[in-house]
What we know:
This protein has helices at 6-24, 39-78, 83-90, 104-125, 131-138, 149-167, 179-202. With 205 residues, the protein is mostly helical. The protein has one domain (6-202). The chain is elongated, with a radius of gyration of 20 Å. It starts with 5 loop residues before the first helix and ends with a helix.
Amino acid sequence: MKRTGPKVELEALRRDVKEIESHFVLSHLGPPNLSTPKRKEILDVAAYVVLVHGALENFIEGLALWVVGRSVSSWTMQRRTTRSTASLLLYQAVPPDTEPVPSVFDNLRNALEEAKESVSRSVYDNNGITPDHLRALFLPLGVNVPTDPVLTASLDLLVRMRHEWAHRYRFGAKVIKSASDAQTTVSDCLKLAEKLSAEAAAVRP
Length: 205
């Protein structure tokens, strides 16, 4: 059976980032250089940013799906409520009257299944990895999103760089960074991912 969970998702992210970094940016690292990056470095950094952004998206999606899946199974299989269970139910509308009247267990089970479908849709709609999107995705799961201003600023910068290269390449990307600067930004994003992974594990869904 395939292992899942915050630790597994974080390990996969670290492996992916290390491989991408080794392929695209390591050859450009060295002593500080104040000159404008050469074209090859610019393109390699662009590829690095786009691929790391994708790896972070996969990490966030896997983490969210793990939390909601565990929360639902905790109730349906063990009749155990958690912080995630309570938070998911708070974000759900009151279920309509039905005939026959469901038991309390089924009432909660149905509400949790609806919440699971809602979270799954948010994940597959792929609305990005900005701090605002992370809060919209994880707060209903009872998971706190890191608020460290340095780390969130780096995540915002990564998103902006990726947007420039993925959607504005024809007009020329406006956010150009050296390999060293991009590596620092990604390092901060990994620290944010570590904190988010720890928060997800701490809720014990």
